Design the sequence.
């Protein structure tokens, strides 16, 4: 894990002098500490973490920069209030000698509310350097709507004014913030700057550019749908094993098709989104609502939690051309996630073109 994160950041820093950041999910806790250390060894400039409450991370970064041992509390389902499960990483033990002093990267928390941002700014164990504020139209995982809101007639979560963050509260914190969710359009960067933001986060526009790692055939099909005006995402409330709403591009021959999802043989062989749970003997076990139903129930899981769950681990690997071939010969299918801007992503295409570059996106956003 240390080596892979080191390599990823080192390669990203080649050929330029701009800062490089790396994004982790707070919910994926087991590899977090060695991942942070590997990225820091390569000189990563920013650590970004969302999909949870990354309250402990700023202090962890301080300690790793000093070459000191770090621990992180592990969320374990079924644990008693006085149970404490932790993961630990010691740079000196890893190296077999005293660990060097490293530059502490900036830490940005990815949040959906000013309440969470305020808590992190006040109560995190170390320095929080800013926030990325993700709205409900951003791709990937979304924060659930506030309150017990019913689903829309189409079966999607319904967001309201309660889910719009109070930007004045962010400005009052005095820390830089970036806005995310439908900011991949001309004029939106300037609008964000007028609101006091340091900039914007754009994902969908870059996901379909020539340089992205997304499978070329998938990019071509989705761009064609965008050109035709039929590209859309469905915010699925149950697809992700994490329990967070997850945006799915509706596309043939992917697991967004219900028949293909039902036909797939359930397997959990990558396990990135597994949950830790307390076993009857007090030790930690691992289960996932997207694994074979009988396995999940045998491990104490509620069968109702398995309904509609997609194996994002295998599907997202297939999105970049690394879909596994299972022992029975079944080839894992992709499942593409995007923000709502997938509907208009074809606007980056020049007349008659079938692809566009990252530079085209930047030129359009800055124009």
Sequence:
């Amino acid at each position: 894990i240390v080596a892979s994160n080191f390599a990823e950041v080192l390669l990203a820093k080649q050929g330029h002098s701009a800062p490089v950041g790396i994004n982790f999910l707070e919910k994926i806790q087991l590899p977090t500490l060695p991942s942070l250390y590997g990225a820091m060894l390569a000189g990563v400039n920013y650590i970004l973490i969302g999909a949870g409450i990354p309250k402990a991370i700023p202090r962890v970064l301080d300690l790793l920069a000093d070459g000191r041992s770090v621990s992180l509390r592990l969320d374990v389902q079924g644990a008693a209030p006085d149970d404490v499960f932790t993961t630990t990483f010691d740079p000196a033990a890893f190296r077999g000698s005293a660990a060097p002093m490293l530059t502490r990267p900036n830490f940005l928390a990815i949040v959906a509310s000013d309440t969470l941002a305020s808590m992190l700014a006040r109560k995190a164990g170390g320095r929080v350097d800013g926030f990325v504020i993700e709205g409900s139209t951003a791709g990937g995982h979304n924060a659930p709507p506030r309150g017990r809101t019913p689903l829309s007639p189409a079966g999607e979560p319904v967001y309201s004014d309660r889910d719009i963050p109070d930007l004045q509260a962010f400005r009052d914190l005095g820390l830089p913030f970036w806005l995310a969710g439908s900011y991949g359009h001309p004029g939106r960067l300037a609008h964000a700057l007028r609101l006091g933001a340091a900039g914007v986060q754009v994902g969908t526009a870059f996901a379909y550019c020539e340089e992205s790692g997304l499978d070329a055939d998938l990019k071509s099909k989705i761009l064609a749908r965008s050109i035709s005006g039929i590209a859309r995402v469905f915010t699925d409330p149950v697809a992700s094993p994490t329990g967070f709403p997850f945006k799915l591009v509706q596309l043939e021959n992917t697991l967004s098709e219900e028949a293909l999802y039902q036909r797939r043989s359930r397997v959990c062989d990558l396990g990135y989104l597994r949950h830790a749970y307390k076993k009857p003997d007090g030790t930690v076990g691992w289960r996932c609502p997207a694994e074979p139903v009988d396995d999940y129930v045998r491990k104490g899981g509620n069968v109702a939690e398995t309904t509609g769950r997609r194996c994002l681990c295998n599907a997202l690997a297939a999105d970049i051309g690394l879909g596994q071939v299972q022992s029975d010969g079944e080839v894992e299918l992709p499942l593409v996630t995007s923000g709502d801007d997938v509907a208009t992503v074809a606007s980056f295409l020049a007349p008659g073109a079938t692809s566009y570059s990252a530079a085209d996106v930047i030129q359009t956003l800055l124009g």
